[in-house]
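Notebook entry, structure prediction.
Reason for the run: the old model in the group folder had no record of what sequence produced it. Starting over properly, with the input documented here first.
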Amino acid sequence: MGKGEMTKRKEKVVKNIRENYQSLEGMISKQLFMGNDLHGPTTGTFREEIWAELFQQILPKKFVIEQSAFIIDSKDGISKEIDLVIMDEMYTPYIFHYGKLKFIPIEAVAAVVECKSESIDPGAITAWGGELKKLHTATESVARLATQITTGPVPTQMSTRPIRILCALDQSIPGNIEAIFDFVLLAASKNKNENFENTYIKVRSNTTFNNLYEWFKDLNFYEYSEKEIDQHIKNTKNNIDKASLESIKLEKYQVLDKDRNPISLMTFNFQLNQLLMLINNPMMFPHRAYAELFCED
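New structure, fully documented this time:
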């Protein structure tokens, strides 16, 4: 095979992958619209399963997607029911898992997903976000690392929080609601009178953080002050290339088609997985803290 032929082959493969993502957008959004018509806006299980299928397509296999679960912390905190919980179960035990009833420790949770139709109750979403923000990772962990035994969190990850995602049908989302989430995915149709043939997914990301360094701080030093973060970073044995992280914006992961329009789902894939790599493994599990939680006083 000649060099020119090989180049053409590679270009064709790349083109096919791009088109596959656009097809996947259409299939998922079409199912959501049809399901909304057939099942009605109150049937949540159906749409959760469709959105879960999307995340299964793009997430590494180490992540498990749990449907309808509760998140707890070691200080008696408990979330409202979460539609989809994206967790790494390799290192962290379930607190309770029996049938469909699941209680998952906050230390294990990488992302949470709220699935809605065309109806969003601002009060309910605000309460959902408020309960989630009250949950805090604990620091009483004991684990062997490559070079030492640690009795606390690693200096580059003192307190994590889940990446927050809203999935819904296309609509206007109030600013105070959108601010709760890091990503908003909206299934859209260019013409709803065409049996939803021309459908796609809109993706919007949190614009609060200007670069990967700001994302890194918020995801790994949740609710720490700037001074505390600077001190912890200075204490790390491994250098953190702050300047490089500050030079990388999340918008740099955007994939565009030939008309310079974003291929939303492919863009979301790269952006979400980059943020998951900033979190990397979940917090080391604080077994003592949870043991104390369940001791009868």
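Summary: The longest helix spans residues 3-39.
The old model has been moved to the deprecated folder.
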